Amino acid sequence: MKTILRALLLWTAVPLLPLLAQGPLTPPGPPAPSMKTLDQIEPRTPISSVPYTITNAGSYYITSNLFSGIFGGNGVIIKADNVTLDLNGFSLSAGPILFGGLPGAGVNVPSPQQNISIRNGTVSGWRLAGVQASAANNSRLDHLRAAGNGGAGLAIGNGGTVNFCVSSANGGEGILAGNDTSITECPVAGNHLDGIKTLGGGLVNRCTASGNTNAGVLVGDGSSVRGCTARTNGSDGISTGAGCTVANCAAADNNAVGILLSSNCTVTACNAFNNQGGFILGGIDCGDGCVVRDCTSTGTAVGVGFITGEACSVIGCTARNNNLSGIFVGQGSTVKNCVVSENHAAGIYAAFYCTVSGCTARTNDFDGVQVSPGNLVENCACSESGLDGIGADPGCTVSGCVVARNGRDGIEVAGNCIVTRNHSSDNTGNGIKAVGQANRIEDNQVFGNQGNGIGVDGANLANAIIKNKARFNVSGDYGNLSGNTDYAPVATPATAVNPFSNF
């Protein structure tokens, strides 16, 4: 009986449970906004006409394309720190102004300010500049297009950044920047001064400069230029101050030097092609104390492939088909592991007290390697030169070289030189020729030359000609041999008793 009562109580209670769980179904009011407005995220002030002067920090934006009137003047004037100006994809433009009208800039920062950001739009036709922010330090320009302005397209002050901007056909520089600036991925073309110009300590990265009246890229002391292309500019392609680095750049068809560097610079993995150069200029041209590594210079119209000042190093470079020498280095320099070919003067010319090592010179119009007094030429290969394979002035050492099929002598040295362990064959003149006196010619192999194997200008000139091997030379293996005490005896290996004998 108790079991039946419990079941009845449970059965009568079940319908009441849903009624007890329900609350009111009518909402208390409309839903509240769940997202913030743009003004709440970044409060911004609209600009709907020009001229407009900003005197307070904050964020401003252009509401439409804006056009300056016939009386000229500036478009937007910034007179405060910490300002962001968004052109919002629109343009600030200026047309012709009446006589007596004021020249101006699309955006002008007339007095020293800092932390200015201008972005995302076009500035064109302004008499002064597109953006004149040279007085704005630690500021930035992003995604701007500047065209047809009377002065610079874009100008930024010290510590500034310019990213992804385009500047063309302006009356001044395409981009003009102060000290310690960074300019990245900006094409500049057809500007009436330099394409890009910075003061010291700047970085110009992955930019292109073409058709500018002056230099494509011009940077001050201590700057870096990386991954840039400079083409068809009216002066130098890339030009730097002292202590700069230029890497992975290309300079082609410029009207002066392809890459021009001041002293103590480094240039790496660059290519100079078909630049005009000049009589004492080159495709790549640098001052004293520079390092040029893994670069190519080809087709310099007037001048040298590479030309350096004193105490420089040219390493792993290629010079081909330049109007004068392939490589020309100042005194105390090193040329190492380079290839020079089809140049219309000497392949390599080195001034006093240089080292030329491990180089290949082929089919150059003058000497393959031509060196001034006091040089060391070692382990080089010189062939098919128009004149001598190697031509050395007094006091030089030529060692371990291979010279063949040159238009005159394989190796020609003046007085007081050492010529040792070389191989000279099939040259139109002598295998080795000594001009002057007190030369030491030792342990060389000369074979099949049209002149003498070893030729000297005269007898008994205090030369030491020892331990050489000469065979099958058309005019005789040893010239001026008779009565010439400069030669050690000529013997065969089987009969030689003198340790200095020639063979």
Structural class determined from secondary elements: mainly beta
Q: What portion of residues belong to β-strands?
A: 35-45%
Mean pLDDT: 92
Low-confidence stretches: 1-21
Biggest sheet features: 37 strands, parallel
Q: Indicate the percent of residues in helices.
A: under 10%
Number of strands: 58
Measure the end-to-end span: 139 Å
Number of helices in the DSSP assignment: 3
Question: From the alpha-carbon coordinates, what is the Rg to the nearest angstrom?
Answer: 38 Å
**Quaternary state, please?**
single chain
Specify the overall morphology: rod-shaped
Structural description of this entry:
This protein is mostly beta strands. Helix content is 4%, strand content 40%. The protein has 3 helices and 58 strands. The strands form 3 sheets. It has a 37-stranded parallel sheet that branches. The protein has a 19-stranded parallel sheet, with no helix packed on it. The longest helix has 12 residues, at 2-13. Residues 1-21 have low confidence and may be disordered.
Descriptive key words:
mainly beta, 19-stranded parallel β-sheet, 3 helices, rod-shaped
Short précis:
The chain is mostly beta strands.
Task: Describe the secondary structure blueprint for this structure.
Blueprint: H1 2-13, H2 16-21, H3 38-41, E1 44-47, E2 52-54, E3 58-62, E4 66-68, E5 76-78, E6 83-86, E7 91-94, E8 105-108, E9 113-114, E10 116-124, E11 129-133, E12 136-137, E13 140-147, E14 154-156, E15 161-163, E16 166-168, E17 175-177, E18 182-184, E19 187-189, E20 196-198, E21 203-205, E22 208-210, E23 217-219, E24 224-226, E25 229-231, E26 238-240, E27 245-247, E28 250-252, E29 259-261, E30 266-268, E31 271-273, E32 277-286, E33 291-293, E34 296-298, E35 302-308, E36 313-315, E37 318-320, E38 327-329, E39 334-336, E40 339-341, E41 348-350, E42 355-357, E43 360-362, E44 369-371, E45 376-378, E46 381-383, E47 390-392, E48 397-399, E49 402-404, E50 411-413, E51 418-420, E52 423-425, E53 432-434, E54 440-442, E55 445-447, E56 454-456, E57 464-466, E58 469-471
Parallel strand pairs: 1-3, 2-5, 3-6, 4-7, 5-8, 6-10, 7-10, 8-11, 9-12, 10-13, 11-14, 13-15, 13-16, 14-17, 15-18, 16-19, 17-20, 18-21, 19-22, 20-23, 21-24, 22-25, 23-26, 24-27, 25-28, 26-29, 27-30, 28-31, 29-32, 30-33, 31-34, 32-35, 33-36, 34-37, 35-38, 36-39, 37-40, 38-41, 39-42, 40-43, ...
